[in-house]
Amino acid sequence: MTTQAAGATGPMSRQRLRVSGTVQGVGFRPFVYRHAVALGLSGYVLNDSEGVLIEVEGPKPEIDQFTQLIRTDAPPLARVTAVQIEQMDRAGVPGEPVFRILDSVDRGAADVPVSIDTTTCPDCLAEIDDPADRRYRYPFTNCTNCGPRYTIVLSVPYDRPATTMAGFPMCDRCAAEYHDPADRRFHAQPNACPACGPSLTWQTFGCAGALGDDALGDGVLGDDALRAAVAAVVAGQIVAMKGIGGYHLVADATNAAAVAELRRRKARDDKPFAVMVPSLEAAHRVCHLDERAVAALSSIRRPIVLARRRMSSGITDDIADGVAPGLPEIGVMLAYSPLHHLLLGGVDRSLVMTSGNLSDEPIAHHDDDAAVRLGPLVDGMLLHDRPIHIRCDDSVVRSTRRRVQVLRRSRGYAPEPLRLPFRTAHQVLAVGAELKSTVSVAKHDWVVPSHHIGDLEHLATYRSFLRAVDHLAHLYGVVPDVVAHDMHPEYLSSKFAAELDLVTVAVQHHHAHVAACMVDHSRTEPVLGIAYDGLGYGPDGSLWGGEVLVADFASARRVAHLLPVRMPGGTAAIREPWRMAAVWVSMALGADVAASVVHRLQPAAGTGPDDATVRAVLDLAERSTTPLTTSAGRLFDAVAALLGGRQRVSYEAQAAIELEAWATTVDPRDARRYDDLIEITGDDTSLILDPAPLIGAIVDDVHAGIDRAPIAAGFHDAFGRATVELACTVATAEGIDTVALTGGVFQNARLTEVVESGLIARGLNVLVHTRVPANDGGISIGQAAIAAALS
């Protein structure tokens, strides 16, 4: 594309600009072109493997203005991180009377961020809803300001042949838009319309013939396919829908029977479902949303937002209670693709929109795989023929009193780079832990985390992990010379790292958590890291999880921890919280009392262990062969079990989540007071937080018939205040003024608020996760930063 530059007078200059950041696939070249022409400048702009390269010639004031516009007025999806300017010798460069957009150049290894997938922009939505527009009701409408990017890109430079849209040649009208610098689809790589782009197909499964004589059958195409899916959902059936980053399982969220059937088919007993609501107004009817939650919900990232439900007799604005059984929060999101927009418009109600998989498997994103894995679970499938190159689950955030925190960093966030607070000489691959797996790559002064992968204990997820490693390294041109992994020798990610012909760096789990929080806040100086989580392998061979570390990127030193207790049955103690309850009561009051307490729990908890099993577990807890743990997560499980919670969980941290839920129903003034019942013992080299006296007091209150909600609130307060005292003691001794709160337990908003406000009141700076998950989803980020800091 060429256009004659306006005439210019005065001293002439020529500059070469190297623009770095997220500047491909976001309309950056058209943006550069329009400003250059408007300012009367000549030259060119192109994409290459390092970002965007510009050569521009004209009067110096206009070039200065042009450069400032690039820095400050970039397109909505662009993120300019650097503009390097080189003055050119005009004598050696032939003059150009025009400004041009040149074809992309592959200069070798990629070194440019790929844009995130973003929600459909208002302009495209207006076209979709306009009967006079040629894209009316077209579910693949997009432009340079919106649509899929990461999930369709194969490689960079980002051009249509390097995406899964390569198989859809543009029609004349789309091509005209693509080549017109005045059009918002100028160089929009996924550009398409009904005449040339992807299309929908409806495939029935168990529901064939079930919708009556007017139902549409197999192989229906286009808008009829969408109408068939709408009819199925309205009739209470379950539909698999291919979206941006994979398949969703869809059901009517207002239909209790449909929600229950989806749980049965998906083998998902209690874990909450996400709900896609038709509008922001509908979201307000479903839950309490503050300004931060509204901003996150309606942002271009379109995450699932966890917020407190509006309750009324177990029903929330007609949302079936089975969507999030027993929990005060619900996960809501708005439509983020044209297809979601059209489906919601057709059904005119809120929909369960959950990952297309069986519980714990990776989300399906290939059509053949979806037919095999999802076909038996659904009544019909709404398909399309645009391939998804990389699967990408929905992201999850939570709005708390002080901030919005990312809990799962995936679609809309991945693969957005995070800035390292230093520059590294290494190219690093970090392979994360075992649960909530992510991988990251790092070079220069950035780290790029992958999308959420899942739990590697499942073969299909491990295969997805291998694909994510290859894809992320290829996309960002990383040829690693170092691989960082968790210290646990039995994690599949650790074993994978050991098989690579690279320098390996074993990173202690909780050091990685602290480092991830430091990256989140661009911190380089040492911090006091409080890492509370489920389990992480310690250098002493025990299972850590309630740790206080003095740490920076180079090292971590354990200075305090939770009292170690036995974990009878190993992973069985994770699945059955009563086991940890028995151990903690035994520590506080003796084995006989523990056996009696656990026995009394059974009527409140439903089914549970018999007396012989309880005695066997208590005997096991006395053996030196039973693993020791300092896990804060297991302590929270134990308290939940003592308060009559479930004796067996169906998803990770379920007991602790429910414990927090009970606590949130109580006014802080009505919480039980357990002052000074958590002891701080030990010596100057290692302090110990001992909650056994608190457990004894909780047992007494339960026996006295006190309601569990004020006990749960009192436990949070007591544990939080004891953490503050411990942190202040260590911070003073170590001369440190900043505390980092990290690990999955600090997803607990009630605990975080108690600890954070207490530390601030004592004059300490506090770092809390925002962009990086506090859970194991952030581990690979911390690992990458630690390995990158190696000299």
The computed structural class is alpha/beta
> Mean pLDDT across all residues, rounded?
91
Within the largest sheet, what's the order of strands?
Answer: 8-7-15-9-10-14-11-13-12-16-17
Please tell me how large the radius of gyration is: 28 Å
- Tell me the number of helical segments per DSSP (H or I, 4 or more residues long): 23
Biggest pleated-sheet summary: 11 strands, mixed
Please tell me what the overall shape is: globular
> Helix coverage percent of residues?
25-40%
Number of strands: 32
How big a fraction of the residues is strand?
A: 15-25%
Q: What is the CA-CA span between the terminal residues? A: 47 Å
Q: Regions with pLDDT < 50 over 5+ consecutive residues? A: 1-8, 207-216
In short:
The chain has 791 residues and is of the alpha/beta class. 32% of the residues lie in helices and 21% in strands.
